[in-house]
Amino acid sequence: MGITNSSVSGQFILVGFSDQPQLEKILFVVVLVSYLLTLGGNTLIILISSIDPKLKTPMYFFLTHLSIVDICFTTSIVPQLLWNLRGPAKTITSLGCAVQLYICLALGSTECVLLAVMAFDRYAAVCKPLHYASVMNPRLCYALSGVAWLSGLGNSLIHSTITLWLPRCGHRKLHHFYCEVPSMIKLACVDIHANEIQIFVTSLVLLLLPSALILMSYGHIAKAVLRIRSVRAWCKALGTCGSHLTVVTLFYGTIIAVYMQPNSSYSHTHGKFISLFYTVVTPTFNPLIYTLRNKDVKGALRRLF
To answer: What does the DSSP 8-state code read for residue 19?
Structure first.
């Protein structure tokens, strides 16, 4: 392909899937279709949540934020990925890489916290139904969404800045399809053990802690439903929580596989495909999961059209 450091001075080389040119053609179509579905599905959720009075609830307030995160997250990655998949040029400017690094880490971290907030909302809906409106009042909803956005922004400002400060000694060849912290720190020509520890500690806070809160929320939900001993209650709980639990499993399962393993074991091939799943595929599934499994959303869609 003729990609060399000297030919792209001031740019990063995104190796991506260039070692599998036939796969690139297939991925181009898959990624393009997924991106269009992501934009259409999440925009539709934002639209109906904004205009349908029956969806003016905390659940759809947080779902709107999740859709905004997914649209921005994929938009920061997919256009560059499509450009690199369609031709021999596999580069991104230094500024573009830095912007992508900041935005992706901020939005990914925000989604981690936001999914935990949504689990708390489901806990309040199932376990505190009589007090749900007072517990999940508008002030608390705005505060929780603010915590999610600010935690993502803070995490990105710290780790992206530290990553970009690392000396690279001219190394600009990224074995990835976008600028991500685990792959970026591998370009450093200094000891990165401290950076690996920082990533691991941050992952404990922003991945395992929200995961633990989500499991606790669903543990209380399961206990509450078991006490009722009603098939109808089981069905209602499944309808209320099933969509969110599916999204959580897809997102956390893949992102933990990337950020919770030591950097030395970060496989180029496996890491790329796992990242492709949570950056492209999962945002596509989110609106489909919430619309296909949710009677309120399907009713709102019928009223809209």
So the answer is: T
